[in-house]
Amino acid sequence: MRIKALLVDDEVNIIKNLQSVIPWESMDIEVVGTARNGEQALEIVRRDSPHLVLCDIRMPVMDGIRFLEGLRELGSEAEVIMMTGYQDFSYVRSVIRYEVKDYILKPIDYEELAQTVERLARGIRSRSEEQQQVQQEWRRVFHLAYEKVLYDLLVDLGGGASRSFLREHERETEGLAFAMMLIDVADYTKKEHLWEEKERKLWNFAVQNILQESLAQLGVPHSVLQIRSGEWCVLIERVPPETFDRRLVLEWAEKLRFSVESYLKLGIRAAVHPFPVPIERLSKAYKGLQRILNLSPSTAEGIIVPEKDRGGQEVSTHKLWDWIEEMVTGLKRCDRRRTETALRELNDSFRRLPEASSDRAEPILHYLCLHLLREMRTMDVMTREEEADIWQRLDRNPGVRDTLAVINKLVDRSLDSVMKKKTSEVLMLSARDYIERNLPSDLSIDALAEYLGISGSYFSLLFKQHFGETFVEYVTKQRMEMAKSLLALSDKSVTQVGGMVGYSERRYFTRVFSKYTGMLPSEFRERHQNRKGLAEIPSWSAGGE
């Protein structure tokens, strides 16, 4: 940090001596101005905001005391060294309240003054670093809270914490709109079925990381929110909404798609909302993009921009989707009546469908089935064997009637599973999902308890009962396992890997990793880098070291 200094004295010779004798350059201090009275000095303060001021007490026009008063009224926190003669000591009491750091007697001992300046400069730099760290921490904490609010709005949770956050920051969010895109791994439902749990987590983690790094390179304020496995909602702030440029947003979407495909060899689909989305319409816009992606052929890759409804078939398709959504919502809320009513409506609508419409309805129903299957997996309401049975039936390309039978069987199994689960189990599944989505962020018992709407002590009790270990032990284990995979399969530096799994300080990450594995991160990488990992995942690095 280069410090700015201001010299104030009505004696020209003293100013010249201060400029030439004090080793400003070697102390990395720039003299931004000199003044012969307090009035001139205040003008320089307004213009250059110096960090350090050397000022005489007795000066014409405006003396040092009045200057100090004006300096503090301007809000300046500059360090001040007063230069005074023996006869001016009667003034010292009057400047105490202006937080003068030191006094130098005239005639000036320039060696002593240089030492004083150097000492104060060290203090200024130290405080500046502390302030920057506090500001960075505050920005990070604020952004985490902000992203939590955005997530709640997207999935339409509407929690009390989100509402109070929006009220508190009403001025900042007024008129706030976003460019929205939904990123989805092509044919993800089938890929996820073939992956082991560790593979699935690593693939998701890698995609999230590349999306974030690519957006950081664009230099736009953004949030990357993973809504479910294999799906990310990207929100880019557009304030005011008039700054929305559809062509530019499409270019961003193409860059994100290209980055993921280049580094991970994964096919990516992206749906881009054609207009800016105000904060109060996030949920509706998200569901619309999700619908577009899921009702498009699962093998279709590229950028999709939804259009307005075009006729009855489009509206009918939306209605079918609504019933699937109703079933999912009913299952998530353990509401048997709601789930069964939606399932009955879906069955009745297809029974009434004219024979000529069956060919058009068959692929739509197939996509709806894949969407439902993906949601069921997220909710952890069926075994791998049950899912394999579903896939065997879907792979035979069943018609409308058989696909409906698959959906009925899927919902019946899921409903039975949900109803058998205790409320505490459902809460812990949500906790596990939250931890997985927020692994790189600060995770705390209080934050998760608030998210679930229960007390911290009750959460700790449930967590230990369900997972067989404490919250801290579980989170550390998840972070360390992810770090092991990243060290073995990516070219990220140890510092970057630590940051990606929630440790901002390399030294602390190294200590925790060594305790967990018995090896330093560098030793672990050297030993495992050339071995076959969990999957043949190519090294990725969307950003620099």
Mean pLDDT: 80
Quick one: biggest sheet?
A: 6 strands, mixed
Please tally the helical runs, counting DSSP H or I stretches of 4 or more residues: 23
CATH fold descriptor of the largest domain: Alpha-Beta Plaits
The Cα radius of gyration reads 31 Å
The end-to-end distance, rounded to whole angstroms, is: 23 Å
Query: Oligomerization state of this entry?
Result: single chain
- The first-level CATH class of the largest domain is given as Alpha Beta
* DSSP, total strands: 11
Structural class by helix and strand composition: alpha/beta
CATH level 4 superfamily of the largest domain: Reverse transcriptase/Diguanylate cyclase domain
Gross CATH architecture of the largest domain: 2-Layer Sandwich
How much of the sequence is in beta strands? 5-15%
Globally, the shape reads: elongated
Number of domains: 4
Question: What does this molecule look like?
Answer:
The protein is of the alpha/beta class. It folds into four domains: 3-129, 3-Layer(aba) Sandwich (Rossmann fold); 175-307, 2-Layer Sandwich (Alpha-Beta Plaits); 308-421, no CATH class; 424-528, Arc Repressor Mutant, subunit A, CATH 1.10.10.60. The protein is 60% helix and 11% strand. Helix 2 (38-48) runs parallel beside helix 3 (64-73), helix 13 runs antiparallel to helix 16 and helix 20 (471-489) crosses helix 22.
